[in-house]
TrEMBL record:
GO terms for molecular function: pyridoxal phosphate binding. It comes from Variovorax boronicumulans. Gene3D superfamilies: Type I PLP-dependent aspartate aminotransferase-like (Major domain). The lineage of its organism: Bacteria, Pseudomonadati, Pseudomonadota, Betaproteobacteria, Burkholderiales. It comes from the Bacteria. Transmembrane segments: none annotated. It holds the Pfam family Aminotran_1_2. This is Aminotransferase class I/classII large domain-containing protein. Residues 6-300 form the Aminotransferase class I/classII large domain.
């Protein structure tokens, strides 16, 4: 990462608030933006609420579908400041996979080819056991803005995010909202600063990642033992996507799966929450942090014998 000036580092009240500011600053209602698919449902909901259109770029493990990106880029607004691509590199939500170095390089090449502004969603990097590439670092902050946060590792109540901007974007008057209405409280900034600077924080992250790895392996074992198939093996973080593949009988309906999950108090989200692209089979996002007790066992037993 290049040396940053103080104007290039901004804070916001949560990563979603920062993303909303960037969307409102650089696009107009009716504009289309490029979004990796599957993508966080909060991001998808925000884009729809603001009246923007999504052009979905399929995510194939650690890489984007560059052919689809090239095709969709032709439908973006002509003005370069309105040509946005949203993606994540470290522990994507919902897949839990990191972008490969090759995939990150391809994405940056495509961004340069189509004159895109890349919004790197980096809120889950603390839960990545891998040295996942950073587009902002690889690009030297030329056409990438990075949005990161601390709520995923510290506390969901700590609504504090950072935004790293290229130097030639910092004077954009449209970004004033990052300094004003969407700014976090001084208390939140001080708490985050104290914790992140503490020598014990890296050890805390290591313990957290180890616990999530163990929970993920146990959850994957239970799911595969019940006939489910993982969409991909996550690199880290709390999410695991799996479903009943074709040919698996009995194969419960999506409504039945979600209804039983609610009944068991099991946090579950359907694939349709994260994208509209065709899928090999109906899958669901499991949070492994909530799958370590008997709720998952009861849920799988009910799905086997509905």
């Amino acid at each position: 990462m290049p040396a940053l000036g103080p104007q290039q580092v901004m804070t916001a009240a949560g990563s979603l608030g920062a993303t909303m500011c960037l969307l409102q600053a650089w696009t107009e209602p009716g504009d289309a933006v490029l979004v990796e698919s599957p993508a966080p449902r909060q991001l998808r909901s925000l884009i729809r609420t603001l009246g923007r259109r999504m052009l979905e770029v399929p995510r194939r493990g650690g890489c984007l579908d560059i052919a689809a990106l090239d095709s969709h880029a032709a439908m973006l607004p002509a003005a370069s400041r309105q040509r946005l691509l949203f993606l994540s590199t470290a522990v994507s939500n919902p897949l839990g996979v990191c972008m490969s170095p090759q995939g990150a390089h391809q994405a940056l090449q495509a961004a340069e080819r189509h004159d895109l502004r890349v919004i790197e969603l980096d809120t889950w990097r603390g839960l990545s056991p891998l040295q996942a590439p950073s587009l902002a670092a690889m690009d030297g902050l030329q056409r990438v803005a990075q949005v990161g946060g601390v709520s995923t590792t510290l506390s969901a109540k700590l609504r504090l995010a950072h935004v790293l901007l290229p130097q030639h974007w910092v004077d954009d008057a449209a970004l004033r909202c990052l300094h004003t209405t969407l700014g976090p409280s001084e208390f939140e900034e001080r708490v985050a600063c104290e914790v992140l600077a503490d020598a014990g924080y890296p050890r805390f992250l290591q313990k957290l990642n180890t616990a999530l790895k163990i929970a993920g392996e146990r959850t994957l074992s239970l799911l595969t033992g019940a006939g489910l198939q993982a969409l991909c093996v996550p690199d880290g973080g709390p999410f695991l996507c799996a479903g009943w593949p074709p040919g698996c009988e009995p194969r419960p309906s999506s409504d039945a799966v979600l209804q039983e999950a609610r009944k068991q108090g099991l946090p579950l989200a359907a694939a349709t929450d994260f994208g509209d692209m065709p899928q090999p089979f109906a899958w669901y996002r499991f949070n492994v942090a909530h799958c370590g007790d008997e709720r998952l066992v009861r849920f799988l037993a009910r799905m086997k014998n509905p």
